[in-house]
Amino acid sequence: MAKISILSDQVANQIAAGEVIERPASIVKELVENSLDAGATSIEVEFKKGGTSFIRIEDNGCGMSKEDALLSLERHATSKIQSADDLNTLTSMGFRGEALPSIASVSKLQLQTREASSESGTDILVNGGSLVHDRDCGMPPGTRMTISQLFNSVPARRKFLKSVATESAHIVHHTRLYALAHPEVSFTLIDDGRTLFRTPSCARLKDRVMEIFGKQIAGKLIEVDAAEKGMRLSGLIGAPGHSRSSRHEMLIFVNNRPVESRTLGYALIESYYGHIPKGRYPVAFLFLELPPSQVDVNVHPAKREIRFRNESNVRGFAVRAILGALKESVTIVTPPVLSKPVVASAPLFETVQAKATGPTPPRASVLSSEPVKRESPVVEKPESLEAEKKEAAIVPVPTQRVETASEQVSSSASIERDWRFIGWAQSDFALFDTDSGIVMLDWKAAQKRVWYERLLASYRNRSVESQKLLLPVPVELDPVSAVVLTDNAEFLEGYGLEAAPFGRNFFRIEAVPSWLPESEAESYLGELVDLLRKGGISDKKGSSAQELLAKHAANRVVVGAVAPSETELVELLDQLFQTSNPLADPDGKPAYIEIARSELNRRFHKS
Ligand code: ADP
Ligand code: MG
């Protein structure tokens, strides 16, 4: 007896479905692609319970005749290619003719469709791969696919489904991707009767992003548009300081197809180094266009992953384009114009020092309790900011007003920005009322940025200032640290710290950087020796050592600093906006956040 038999179509379809239909979101993906291929200008996606109980995709595309509709459910039935040669000139999303039969084999599928030229539509019902009925129906031109009882014929597959929330998230993600790639098509997404978004067909990517991801994101985006050797990278990326805890909002399209590309993902993350905190991810809606011959899309069954012929070319180009956009975004930031506060003439916020002598000065602010952070003994604030302003080699920025990344409301270029100090919140944040909303400034982050650039500049042009200690501070180190210090004494001297050996493992600190309080000489030396031992800094590391030391010092200065008075705050802002990146501290954390009036309106449900 023969052992081999040909699989029935139904079984073959179910096997194919295993590859194409991983989860409800794959159905959404395939059907939306079909709608796009059908030339739809409006697509509605509705689902319930993460797509497991119900999915409906409806479009106003070309529709199908009854004959074609029946054929479309057969394996390898496609209108998109006729021969293998057609693959080279493919412009459609689909071409394998596998999606519909696969979906039909593992669910209850209702296909309703009508061509504009036809009087009536066709209604076909298939359950687990078997035809239940086909009949005429009335409907507007286009196609409506309704899927229920997903995986009814393959119960084992149901077990692999994740929670409703997870499956829903995948559907939302996929629909967003297509909506982003096709701003000319109007998309509606409905989850359990709730409309998640409804986008008009519009031309601008930024509008679409706002419709899909909420209005508040738009002000935090900057534009990228660069071209090189037949490649073009365009889209929107997060302004420096704006980051996410996951890569879910790093969306990349290659030739308008949403893809996962390690190359571009890495390029993005690398480019944001220093602009966002470690372990966080940038936001990006990036579109790479390049000749189809330069990319291989057919490496993944769901066409998700791609490869580039010349990975390093693409990577280099992407990094240059992103860095360029980031750089531009920070140099066009306009310094805010601070107006005199409208409130009392007494400073709102005294510099509160835990001086052992004398009582804490009274404060006119409405803060009810003493901020905890400032109760610990604090170090004298560094010299008057005014004095240092003159020494600091700070990059000048153009003063004319240009639309900045961090604002989203007032695009009327003539309005001069006005930051009016309102008061302090949660002890760390200075609040400002502006013409376009509210700004919250993390004064410590701002000060870190200012100090970082000031110190870095002094390291670079070798103008580090140090102060000789009247009474050298003796320190004893463990033997390894002692060797490290001896080997690097000259290097540290370049950064204002002088330590001379006197006896085995003993040193005398003779000078410290001017910004450092004498009382911290020993702990600072200890930290630098640690950095040296861990290999973070050394005289061979050049600029990266300088950056690390400047970062370390800026953090140190700020830890002990006292909240600025109002006048100092004005100066701090002046200085912040002269730095190369006023939006973020040296670790990439935001220095200030702006909440637009429109966002406030939205939250308060005001029209
Ligand atoms: P493919 O997209 O790879 O051709 P599918 O199984 O997804 O294969 O679809 C089979 C065929 O059914 C398509 O080639 C197309 O002709 C037709 N079709 C599917 N969905 C639609 C739709 N929404 N509107 C019009 N025609 C459609
Ligand atoms: Mg298809």
Radius of gyration using CA atoms only: 31 Å
CATH level 1 name of the largest domain:
Alpha Beta
Mean of residue pLDDT? Answer: 80
Q: Which range best describes the helical content: under 10%, 10-25%, 25-40%, 40-55%, 55-70% or over 70%? A: 25-40%
Structural class by secondary-structure content: alpha+beta
Strand % is 15-25%
* Record field, number of beta strands: 23
Outline the biggest β-sheet.
8 strands, mixed
Q: Domains counted in the coordinates: how many?
A: 4
In this entry the ligands are: adenosine-5'-diphosphate, magnesium ion
CATH architecture of the largest domain: 2-Layer Sandwich
Highlighted features:
607 residues, alpha+beta, Heat Shock Protein 90, Ribosomal Protein S5, domain 2, formyl-coa transferase, domain 3, 4 domains, 8-stranded mixed β-sheet, 5-stranded mixed β-sheet, 17 helices, 23 strands, elongated, binds adenosine-5'-diphosphate, binds magnesium ion
Describe the structure.
There is one protein chain. The chain is of the alpha+beta class and 607 residues long. The chain has 4 domains: 9-203, Heat Shock Protein 90 (2-Layer Sandwich); 220-331, 2-Layer Sandwich (Ribosomal Protein S5, domain 2), CATH 3.30.230; 337-454 and 560-603, formyl-coa transferase, domain 3 (2-Layer Sandwich); 466-557, MutL, C-terminal domain, regulatory subdomain (Ribosomal Protein S8, Chain: A, domain 1, 2-Layer Sandwich), CATH 3.30.1370.100. Helices cover 32% and strands 23% of the residues. The N and C termini lie far apart (77 Å). Residues 30, 34-35, 38, 59, 61-64, 72, 77-80, 94-100, 143 line the site of adenosine-5'-diphosphate (ADP).
